[in-house]
Amino acid sequence: AGYGCMEALALVAGAGMFVGLAYAVGRPLLGYSGPAPEASAATPVDPVGERREQVYAALRELDFDRQLGKVNAEDYAALRPRLETEALALMDEATAIPEPAAGQETLEREVQAARQRLRRAAAARCPGCGQPRPKGDARCPRCGAPPDRPG
Questions:
Q1: CB within 8 A of 127, min separation 6: which ones?
Q2: Which stretches of the chain drop beneath a pLDDT of 50?
Q3: 69-82 burial string, b = 16+ CB within 10 Å, else e?
Q4: pLDDT computed for residue 84 by the predictor
Q5: CB atoms within 10 A of CB 57
Q6: Contact, 62 vs 76, CB < 8 A?
Q7: Is residue 66 packed enough to be buried (19+ CB in 10 Å), middle (13-18) or exposed (0-12)?
Q8: Which residues pair with 125 in a beta bridge?
């Protein structure tokens, strides 16, 4: 009686393992890859970057196919320069500096003016103690340092 129960238990365990194995093997073969990943709103779309990566991949694949002998020299000589030219154009497009907006030019002028005011204010201070220095004084009234040397 004990062996019959053990045989039934082994049979159930074996059937369960068979079903699990069949599922694990059959799932990829049926093309199911799970739920599709959702596009994140935080991830910006960069069509130039995506196309650039596609061209890089095409260049790598072309070189690999040439090494394997799948692409003859004539086709390789025609395709490689075309892909390189496209890759360079995409690199130029990705690194291009956009023209400043109309309001941005005004902002740049204001920043330059503020920098000049800061430089003038720094020049009117003592390099030794940082105190404001009256114009025309040969030495700092606080620490006695000359205008070109710290005290």
A1: 145, 147, 148, 149, 150
A2: 150-151
A3: eebeeeeeeebeee
A4: 92
A5: 10
A6: yes
A7: middle
A8: 132
Strand partners, 96: none
The pTM score is 0.38
The first and second tokens of residue 9, run together, are 């238990």
Integer Cα distance of 126 and 144 in angstroms: 9
Q: Is the separation of the CB atoms in 55 and 87 below 8 Å?
A: yes
Kind plus residue range of the DSSP H or E element containing 4: helix 2-29
Burial environment of residue 60 by CB neighbours within 10 A (0 to 12, 13 to 18, 19 or more): exposed
**Which residue type, as a one-letter code, is found at position 20?**
G
Give, in order, the Cα–Cα distances in Å from 126 to each of 71, 94, 117, 119, 136.
74, 47, 16, 13, 13
Q: How many angstroms separate the Cα of 40 from the Cα of each of 32, 37, 43, 44, 128?
A: 22, 9, 5, 8, 55
